[in-house]
Amino acid sequence: MEKSANIRRKTFVAREDLLNRVAKVAEKQGCSLFELVNDLFQLVLVSDELNFSLKCVVDECRVLEVAKRSGHVLGSERLLYEMVELAYKQDEAGLLKAWFDSGVLFASNYFTVGDQFLFEEFKTDLLAFTWNAPEFIIESSGNKLFVKVTSPRFTEVYTFLFASFLMGALESFGYKLGKKEVSKGIIRLETVRSVT
User: Fold this and answer.
1) pTM listed for this prediction
2) CA 20 to 30 Å from 166, out of 9, 34, 113, 156?
3) Phi and psi, residue 110, nearest 5°
4) What per-residue confidence (pLDDT) applies to 5?
5) Is residue 2 part of a domain?
6) Which residues contact 23 (CB under 8 A, 6 or more apart)?
7) What is the separation of C-alpha 120 from the centre of its chain, rounded to a whole number of angstroms?
8) Distance from the Cα of residue 40 to its chain's centroid
9) What is the full DSSP assignment across 86-142?
10) Using CA atoms in the order 112, 195, 99, 75, what is the torsion angle rounded to 10 degrees?
11) Same domain flag for 122 and 173
12) pLDDT in tens, 8-27
């Protein structure tokens, strides 16, 4: 909102197609183009003060929205590790299956009509959601997919459970496990996708 009539204005150049689209957004939001453009400039400045680009802020917001819609919640990492340790002692096989099934369910959010896979979106979101793993690599070569996850913060039990989650997700995309190496804080999976 414009606070003073004494604020000086300056003209700048923008692509016409973008400016027309932004004008429609302003109309939809019930404000003037002047107000919306100045809000955008203000957001750029705030993002810069936080040492983020505006694109990074939007990407992070998108990740949180996708996480919320797919049933994820924020919680204490330490508490999560303690809870899975207790549950694992009670029912190891049941918990491994629950995490596998959770991976299947997570991956199902990336299927479209006609069994098309949005695998790149799946990869992007999975990497973003797993911010407690400083190294998370998913690489493909032909019909093979290689996954490497390392985190000094993972407990041994959590590592096994997260590997089970990954295997459930990857199987949903048609990848079959070839080689698996799982130990405290380290997951290495080699999978092969059958060509249909």
Assistant:
1) 0.76
2) 113
3) -110, 20
4) 58
5) no
6) 33
7) 11
8) 24
9) HHHHH-HHHHHHHHHHHHHHHHHTTB-TTS-B-HHHHHHHHHHH-TT-SEEEEEEET
10) -50
11) yes
12) 888 888 899 998 999 999 99
pLDDT in tens, 63-116: 888 778 777 778 899 999 999 999 999 999 999 999 999 999 989 888 875 656
Integer Cα distance of 88 and 41 in angstroms: 50
Neighbouring CB atoms inside 10 A of 181's CB total 11
State how far the Cα of 66 lies from the Cα of 123, in Å rounded to an integer: 13
Confidence (pLDDT) at 170: 95
Question: For residue 54, how many other CB atoms are within 10 A of its CB?
Answer: 14
Token couple for 174: 């048609």
How many angstroms separate the CA atoms of 64 and 72, rounded?
Answer: 9
Q: Read off the tokens for 171.
A: 């199987």
Q: Give CA–CA dist 110/114, Å, rounded.
A: 12
Q: Find tokens 């041994």 and name the residue.
A: 156
Residues 49, 116, single domain; the answer is no
The residues pairing with 139 across neighbouring beta strands, listed in sequence order, are 146
Look-up of token digits 């998370």:
136
Q: Across the strands, what pairs with 150? A: 135, 186
Residue 7 within any structural domain of the chain:
no
Across 106-141, b (16+ Cβ under 10 Å) vs e yields: bbeebeeeeeeeebeebbbbbebbeeebeebebeee
